[in-house]
Write a structure and sequence with these properties.
The chain is mostly beta strands. The protein is built from four helices and 18 strands. The strands form three sheets. Strands 7, 8, 9, 10, 11, 12, 13, 14, 15, 16, 17 and 18 form a twelve-stranded antiparallel β-sheet that branches. It has a three-stranded mixed β-sheet with strand order 1-2-6, with helices on one face. Strands 3-5-4 form a three-stranded antiparallel β-sheet.
Length: 326
């Protein structure tokens, strides 16, 4: 696997054309694109893909081989009713492509991780709602008051139908930094009874009170056990989510590399405070009020909770940090 892959995201650039070509070639096929789309919700074997897409098994198998060789999917051979079967899963969910030459200077990058239960405020929480740790449910379900219980710091899964959580990130030298770009990533999905697809939900992110935009999550993910989800968690409940990356630069805000809004890094006024506020919300009056599940580093598919990354330079430096993605 190439070094450019981080979690389920890959950074591509003209500086490594062989890697860029491999991924571009693998995706330059309607059949292979349909397979990537089919694997967005759950793993499937070659036979299931062939049936779901109504294409021959031989065509499906060849497309799967190309996607696997490129690193876009992973496969696992498992016993089947007639011999063995190849179970396919998405390896990559998002990618960015840098078409400008690499800057000679390198970013100063600060990464901060926040535990799922480390929020500073929980406003307007409405049921269905609850918190779960790695071994058990925390308190009683559908009780918004428990969102301020000291036990919340043990949370590995948090869900609510409507409301917001605010997380505050800080570091010792924040007031001495000039921030060039900011990224916030977390795993999330909609919140339905048990799990349900489709089940859309409008989920927004705000940084320092500036809303970057809204992501409409397509479903509440289930049907298979999350890769990290504990065995005690009910099989018919939410199991995993989507890893989403929100990025703010000097040119605007992006979600998984796609342009989202014209909110820029200057709009966030980061030098003006002692911390950076990140609010995750299912807003009142949302068109798709389908709730949210948030996953910690021991639940779902991804071994992380919330991660905030800053590209910066210290005040007085003459070399500006470059941006990896516009």
């Amino acid at each position: 696997m190439v070094d450019e892959i981080k979690g389920k995201h890959v950074d591509l650039s003209l500086s490594k054309p062989d890697v860029l070509y491999r991924f571009a070639h693998a995706l330059a096929s309607p059949v292979r694109l349909r397979i990537m789309q089919a694997l967005s919700g759950s793993s499937m074997n070659v036979g299931e893909l062939s049936q779901a897409l109504d294409i021959p098994m031989s065509t499906t198998a060849l497309a799967v081989k190309t996607l696997e060789e490129a690193g876009l999917i992973t496969t696992e051979t498992q016993p089947g009713a007639r011999g063995s079967m190849k179970l396919c899963s998405r390896r990559i969910d998002t990618m960015s492509v840098k078409l400008s030459p690499d800057d000679e200077s390198e970013d100063n990058v600060l990464a901060m991780s926040m535990p799922l239960g480390g929020y500073s405020s929980a406003d307007g929480i409405r049921k269905t709602c609850g918190l779960a740790g790695v071994n058990t449910i925390i308190g009683e379900m559908d009780n918004p008051a428990l969102f301020y219980s000291p036990d919340r710091f043990d949370a590995q899964l948090i869900w609510f139908r409507q409301g917001s959580l605010e997380y505050r990130f800080s570091c010792e030298q924040l007031d001495q930094m000039e921030i060039e770009w900011l990224e916030l990533s977390f795993e999330a999905c909609s919140e339905a009874p048990m799990y349900r697809d489709p089940w859309e939900s409008d989920i927004s992110v705000s940084i320092n009170g500036k809303r970057l935009g809204v992501w409409t999550c397509p479903c509440d993910c289930g049907g298979r056990q999350g890769k990290l989800t504990p065995a005690w968690w009910p099989a018919l409940s939410t199991q995993f989510g989507f890893l989403k990356t929100w990025r703010v630069t000097g040119k605007g805000s992006y979600l998984d590399g796609a342009y989202l809004s014209d909110v820029t890094i200057d709009d966030l006024k980061i030098p003006g405070g002692n911390y950076i506020s990140a609010t995750i919300e299912v807003p009142e009056g949302a068109e798709h009020a389908g709730g949210i599940n948030l996953f910690g580093n021991l639940f779902g598919d991804y071994p992380q909770a919330l991660i905030l990354r800053l590209g910066y330079r210290m005040r007085g430096e003459t070399v500006f940090a470059s941006e990896n993605l516009e």
